[in-house]
Design a protein that fits this description.
64% of the residues lie in helices and 8% in strands. The protein is mainly alpha-helical.
Length: 484
Amino acid sequence: MTQGRVEQQIRELTGAGSKGSADRLGLVTHVLERRVGELEAIERRLTELRSLKARVDTTRTVKLARAFDELKSAYPRVELTEEDWNAFRLRFVGDVDRILTNGLRDAEAARNRVNGQPPAEGSPGLDHLDSGDLEAMPVAVLRAEQQRLQKLVGLDRQRAASLEKLNRTASDLRGKIAKLVSEIEYAKGANSRTAQFLEQRLSHYAAYFDALLEEESELRELYRPLEDVLSGFGTTAAKLRLSVRRRVDVAHWARQGEDNFDLRLGGQFKGAGSLARVASDELLPAWEAGTGSEAAEAIREFSAKYSRDFREQGRAKAGNPDEYREWERNVGRWLYSAEHVTLSYTLMYDKLSIERLSPGLRGIVLLLLYLAVDRSESDPLIIDQPEENLDPESIYTELVRLFREASRRRQIIMVTHNANLVVNTDVDQVIVAHCDSFEEGKLPQLRYVSGGLEDPTIRRAVCEVLEGGAEAFRQRARRLRLSM
């Protein structure tokens, strides 16, 4: 039933008595309806203010308190006092209690003013007031006047009940109309709010990439002292560099997005893998090397360019509003997600990741790194065959000098089969192990001979065990046509 039809029926019911009283009743009823509408608007305001106050109280006592407790428990070793921790408590920035108290007080005062008090019994009517004066009368006074006029008009009980029902219907219709008007006004600002939310989302998206850049800078700054040490530690160590770069898992991001689309339909993203290929061409450069603003601009352009394709291939259709809104939220969360972009760092040696080096070269590089960072260490160092998989030149140019420097501050115990590491490192003592012949059912017998290189026996053992003996040297010289 429309509001106009209800008002017409009210006029018909109030027009059955004398013309003057009926007209006056119609006027009072019309003014009363408007004043009741004002009262209902105030009641709605009071309800929302009370709800807001309850929400604020819950947020303060539960949510903000829980957030503070979680923050405090996440960092138990920061050694802050309780007074220091109190500075981290989350609070509303303004005096919300005063604002809510004043709002409730004003709304209640307005309600009391519009509602008013009914007149004393036997009070004269309001026939002397014109429509303008009636507008200023409270609801209770107008209701009393309406009842007085109904008696004058002579409405019977059934018609009075019908009139009361119609008045309630008119009141309900006014409330619905007011709500619709409010929703229409809210919808008019939807575009501006959508643009505002989009800018906020892009700002957060850019902040993530800016944080990656900041973390990369901090890692390089932390590594710089070690880099300075390595640069003066020989040619091999000087080739070590810290590599910090972004890792982008485009395939993971695309797989998450494909869950929202029907890949069987024709379009830019038909078939599995199409989304990943498009993202690699248009988003990957900004993800891998762009600043926060560049990454945000890239995702903005991508969203605008393929918005129609997303909707055409979407799994939800506009015919089901609830399902479609949920689909839009899922697409928004996926599109502006950034967990597929992470920061990784590793050691590089001569432009190669240390994981890609040969076992021998990786060993010498890691040994160099270890000794470089432990230059103040004085505990004994035990090493087993550091020359394994290394060429003789690397052994002589890198390891020999390395061990000679390290031996000045710490004792080095080394197991080796390489003569360079025995002779050229100026060892203090050489221990030569001999194994006698094996016998069935018995463990082999081991014998040890020790001494310095100035001992002829030790020198002879070094020559025989490590280099094959004097005959090996003579054979080598003969092949090279050298005179021994």
